[in-house]
Specification:
Elements (H helix, E strand, L loop, with lengths): L2 H25 L2 E2 L11 E5 L7 H14 L3 E6 L4 H10 L19 E5 H7 L9 H14 L4 E6 L9 H12 L5 H15 L5 H19 L9 H36 L6 H21 L22 E8 L8 E7 L5 E3 L5 H8 L8 H10 L1 H9 L9 E5 L5 H9 L4 E6 L1 H9 L6 E3 L2 H4 L9 E5 L8 H11 L5 E7 L4 H5 L14 E2 L2 H10 L2 E7 L8 H13 L14 H32 L7 E8 L2
Parallel strand pairs: 1-5, 3-5, 9-10, 9-12, 10-11, 12-13
Antiparallel strand pairs: 2-4, 3-4, 6-7, 7-8, 8-14, 13-16, 15-16
This protein binds zinc ion.
Zinc ion binds next to loops.
Length: about 625
C-alpha cells in the first residue's frame, strides 16, 4: 500500500465532493424571466466582442436589476460551453456572492449590466468589444464600486461569444494569478497524478478518470444545454488547456514581434499600449535610480541618544537589517530601550525617505497584489470589527490610517447600520470615498483633525497604524481629545515579545522594516492610555495571532537570494541569467513554502496561547 495506491482514491472522492459543491452553486443561479417593461435609462450594457444581446434580453436584465436593487449584474449566457459554466461555478460562490463585500468580482465575463453612476465612479468605459480577459478586469473593478449590490444571473436569449481553450486559460490566469495562484496548476497536477498512479490501483484509477470525464456534465446538467459532442470535446479541452495556453502564448509573442518589426521597417508607430507601459517602467526606474544615486543614507535623520518613549539613555541594538520585503537600498537599525522595552528605528527615516520607501509597496506596481492580499484577509478584517461587540453598539466609527478603506468595507457586513469614516493621505482616502467604502473622508493627518471631530465617534480604530506613525504620543493625545466620554479606542499592533520576533530574527515580518518606526510593548501602551484617561477594557494577545509568519519568512529569504529582476530600484539590469536564477530559486522554494504553510497552520493553536502571538489588540474606554 503506497501513496500511489491511495492517490486515485483520494482524487476520486474529492472529484465527487467538488462536483456536488459546484452543482449546488450553479443550481442557485437565478434564471431571468422575460419582461415587457422598457429598459431603465440608467442601466448600461457592457459586452465582450461577439456576444449578442437582444432587446428582449436587455429588458429582462434591467427588470431583474431594478427589482433586486442591483447596481451590477453579470449576465451568464444560457448557451455557455460546459467548461466555461464549470469555471463560473469554480470562481463564484453563488450562495454568498451578493452579500460578500470583499469577494473579488467574478462571473461569466460575457456581458454585464451596470448602473450609469457606478460605471462613472469606477471609470469603466461602456463598450461592446471587450475581450474576455479585459472583462475580468472590468468585473473586478465594478464589484469594488458596488460591493453589496453585485450579482449574476442566467439570461436566456443571450448568445455567448465563440470560445477556445487558449482564451479560457487566459481568463483563468488573469482571474487567479494574484488571488488563488494554486488553482492554476492544481487541475494539471491532478491529471498527472491520475495518470502516474494508474498501474498501482487500476480500479480506482478508472473511477477517478470516469469521474473526471463526467464531472462537467454532472455539474451542468439542467443548467447549461449539453450536446452529445461535448462528451468528447469538453474533457479534451480541459486536459489540453495548459499546453494550449503555452502554445498560444508563444504564437502571440511571435506575431507581436513580427508586427513590431514590420511597423518599424515601415516607419509606423508600434503598439501604443505597450510603448506607454515601457515608457512608464523606464520613467519609474530613472526616478528611483536618481533618488538613490547619492546613497540611501541621505534619507536618514541624525540618530538620537535617548529613548523617545521614556527618555532613558540606556539603549541596545536590537536588529540591523536591509529592507527584506522589497529590497530597496539601505540598512536600518532598530534600538531597544533597556529601561522600558520600547523598540524604535534609529536613525529614523526622514519624511522624504518614508515616501520613497512606501511608494510601490501598496500602490503602483504592487497595487493589484495589495488588493488581492486584502481580499484574502476578509475574515481578519471582520474579526477586527467584531472586537467591540461586548462593549458598545457603534453608530459612528472612525478608522485612522484606513488606506483604501478595506477595513471599513468589510466591517459594514458586521455593522450594517454604522457610519464608517476614515482618515488618510489624500490619494488613498479619495479612492476609498469614490468606492463608497468610507462615508466621510478626512484628508491628511489624524492629529490635525482630532479637535474638529471631538465627541463625534463611538469608536476610533488604529489597525497597524501606531507602529508606523512618526509620533505615537501625539496620536494618543489626539485620540484622547477626539473621543467623548464612553468612547472606545481599538488598536492592533505587532507584538515584539511574541515567538516570531524571537525565533525568526530578521525574517520576522512584524519588524516591517523600514515602514515601522517603532514597536510598542503592550504594557507601555496600556500605561500611556491610562495617563490620558483611557482605561483598557480588553487586551487580546493570543487570539489576535495571524498565521503566515513562516511563509513570509520563506518569501523574504527568496527575495534576499534572488530578488525579482524587474525591480526599478535595483542597480542591476534585468538580464536572462538573473531570470533563470530567480526561476531556479522559486522552484527550489516550493517544498519549503508548502512546509512553512503547513507548520504555520498546525502551530496556529499553539501560537494563540499565552503571549506567543505575533499581534496584539487592545480596546480602551475614555472615562469621563
Ligand atoms: Zn524607554
Amino acid at each position: 500500500m503506497t501513496v500511489w495506491f491511495w492517490l486515485p482514491v483520494v482524487i476520486a472522492i474529492s472529484l465527487l465532493l467538488n462536483g456536488l459543491r459546484l452543482r449546488g452553486r450553479l443550481r442557485r443561479l437565478d434564471t431571468l424571466p422575460a419582461s415587457g417593461r422598457p429598459v431603465d435609462p440608467d442601466h448600461l450594457f457592457i459586452c465582450a466582442e461577439g456576444v449578442q444581446l437582444t432587446d428582449a434580453a436587455r429588458r429582462a436584465a434591467s427588470y431583474h436589476a431594478s427589482r433586486e436593487r442591483l447596481d451590477v449584474l453579470d449576465l451568464v449566457p444560457a448557451d455557455l460551453t460546459i467548461e466555461r459554466a464549470l469555471d463560473v461555478a469554480r470562481m463564484v460562490d453563488t450562495r454568498t456572492y451578493r452579500n460578500d463585500r470583499m469577494a473579488a468580482g467574478r462571473g461569466a465575463f460575457q456581458a454585464l449590466l451596470v448602473r450609469a453612476e457606478v460605471a462613472r465612479r469606477a471609470g469603466v468605459e461602456i463598450r461592446d468589444d471587450y475581450t474576455a480577459v479585459e472583462l475580468v478586469e472590468v468585473t473586478e473593478r465594478l464589484k469594488r464600486y458596488a460591493p453589496g449590490s453585485t450579482d449574476l444571473a442566467v439570461l436566456p436569449g443571450l448568445r455567448a461569444a465563440r470560445d477556445d481553450a487558449a482564451s479560457r486559460a487566459r481568463v483563468q490566469k488573469r482571474a487567479w494569478e494574484e488571488t488563488r495562484p494554486l488553482r492554476l496548476v492544481l487541475p494539471t497536477l491532478r491529471d498527472l497524478a491520475i495518470g502516474l498512479s494508474f498501474h498501482e490501483n487500476r480500479p480506482w484509477g478508472f473511477a477517478a478518470m470516469a469521474l473526471f470525464w463526467c464531472q462537467p456534465f454532472f455539474v451542468c446538467l439542467g443548467r447549461v444545454p449539453v450536446a452529445p459532442r461535448d462528451l468528447i470535446r469538453a474533457p479534451i479541452v480541459r486536459l489540453l488547456s495548459g499546453p494550449l495556453f503555452a502554445l498560444d502564448a508563444v504564437r502571440t509573442w511571435r506575431r507581436e514581434t513580427k508586427a513590431a518589426a514590420a511597423a518599424k521597417a515601415a516607419g509606423r508607430a508600434p503598439d501604443p499600449v505597450k510603448e506607454r507601459k515601457k515608457a512608464e517602467a523606464a520613467q519609474r526606474r530613472d526616478r528611483y535610480q536618481h533618488e538613490f544615486a547619492a546613497g540611501p543614507e541621505r534619507y536618514l535623520q541624525p540618530p538620537r541618544p535617548d529613548c523617545p518613549w521614556c527618555g532613558s539613555y540606556d539603549l541596545a541594538i536590537r536588529l540591523i537589517t536591509k529592507d527584506l520585503e522589497q529590497r530597496k537600498p539601505g540598512r536600518f537599525q532598530l534600538d531597544e530601550c533597556q529601561e522600558c522595552g520600547h523598540i524604535f528605528q534609529n536613525p529614523r527615516l526622514s519624511l522624504t525617505g518614508t515616501a520613497i520607501y512606501e511608494r510601490d509597496r501598496r500602490d503602483g506596481i504592487n497595487a493589484e497584489q495589495y488588493e488581492a492580499a486584502q481580499a484574502n484577509n476578509a475574515a481578519l478584517l471582520r474579526a477586527r470589527a467584531e472586537i467591540v461587540r461586548p462593549f458598545v453598539l457603534p453608530r459612528t466609527w472612525l478608522d485612522v490610517g484606513t488606506g483604501l478603506g478595506h477595513f471599513c468595507n468589510a466591517a459594514r457586513s458586521v455593522w450594517p447600520r454604522t457610519v464608517f469614516d476614515g482618515v488618510g493621505p489624500d490619494r488613498t482616502i479619495s479612492e476609498a470615498e469614490r468606492r463608497g467604502w468610507v462615508d466621510t473622508a478626512y484628508r491628511g493627518r489624524f492629529t490635525d483633525h482630532a479637535a474638529r471631530v471631538a465627541g463625534l465617534y463611538d469608536v476610533i480604530s488604529m489597525f497597524n497604524y501606531l507602529e508606523r506613525s512618526r509620533d505615537p504620543s501625539a496620536e494618543l493625545d489626539g485620540v484622547a481629545k477626539a473621543l467623548g466620554p464612553g468612547g472606545f479606542l481599538v488598536a492592533e499592533l505587532p507584538n515584539p515579545h511574541g515567538l516570531g520576533a524571537r525565533w525568526l530574527g530578521r525574517l520576522w515580518r512584524g519588524w516591517a522594516v523600514p515602514a515601522a518606526k517603532q514597536l510598542i510593548p503592550v504594557d507601555n501602551l496600556v500605561a500611556a492610555l491610562e495617563d490620558r484617561g483611557l482605561r483598557t477594557v480588553l487586551v487580546q494577545i493570543g487570539p489576535a495571532h495571524q498565521p503566515g509568519d513562516l511563509l513570509s519568512a520563506v518569501g523574504m529569504a527568496i527575495q534576499a537570494i534572488a530578488p525579482s529582476p524587474t525591480q526599478p530600484w535595483s542597480e542591476e539590469r534585468a538580464v536572462a541569467v538573473r531570470w533563470l536564477w530567480r526561476a531556479l530559486v522559486l522552484l527550489a522554494a516550493i517544498g519549503p513554502a508548502i512546509l512553512a504553510g503547513i507548520v504555520g497552520a498546525v502551530a496556529a493553536g499553539f501560537m494563540r496561547t499565552d503571549s506567543r502571538s505575533n499581534t496584539y489588540r487592545i480596546v480602551a474606554r475614555k472615562e469621563g
